[in-house]
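Q: Here's a chain of 274 amino acids. Please give me its 3D structure as tokens.
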Amino acid sequence: MIYLYIRILTYNGEIMLIHPQLDPIALQIGPLKLHWYGLMYFFAFLSFIYLGKKQLKKIWWSDINEKILDDTFFYGALGVIIGGRLGYVVFYQPNYYLSNLDQIFAFWQGGMSFHGGFLGVLISLIFVTRKYNISWLRLTDFIAPLIPLGLGFGRLGNFINQELWGRPTDLAWGMVFPITDKIARHPSQLYQALFEGLFLFLILYLYSNKKRATGSISALFLIFYGLFRFLVEFTREPDSFLGLFYLNLSMGQWLTIPMIGIGIGMFFVTKNKV
């Protein structure tokens, strides 16, 4: 259980929430260490499998079986890890990694990109659809509601590790992240866990609870993930090595704009084709 506590900061006498500063290692047995972030990945993958098996019982998914789900999980996990890392390298620090090629796959040093992982999953699904001769959009519709809770767990991992913190704020729930400074900031990781995780899951789960036109569930994922990410980015501190871009938007915001546009187009094209 994660506990937040309140401390009076003596340098200005104000009462602020302080990050609990958990040990990044959740459990250690001898030389074996289980990190919180790794545990969040485990919960993400577990939720994907659990929700997928539950969804298989719905009659309108009769063309997708447990073997397809298992292969989708395997190839999708590879896509998340490899695509997420390469996306970070290409989108966020290309110059550094061009000069340090041996660091590209140093996963243990951190640095993953949602958009890279997302593209990695989309590409990995090509292998599954060819193997089982099923529609690519049909498969993306099936997995779309299975993904958000995993995203939420990932953001909780960011919060525990005190990374990707928010911009300064004077709101009552502003939180000090001691790893960076003594300024109260938006706990933007928790905003993302709530919106990109729980709320997005509820939207997609409820919408997919009946037979829908092929592509429409995937379209809603693109629209609402993109919208939630775009808005929350206004509270998130930009990466120090990137800053803000044109129109004072972050890299994350510029990468979500195409998602929203493609999603809206897909939804209106497919919504009446049940």
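Q: Can you summarize the key feature?
A: The beta strands are 5-8, 15-18, 25-29, 32-35, 175-176, 184-185.
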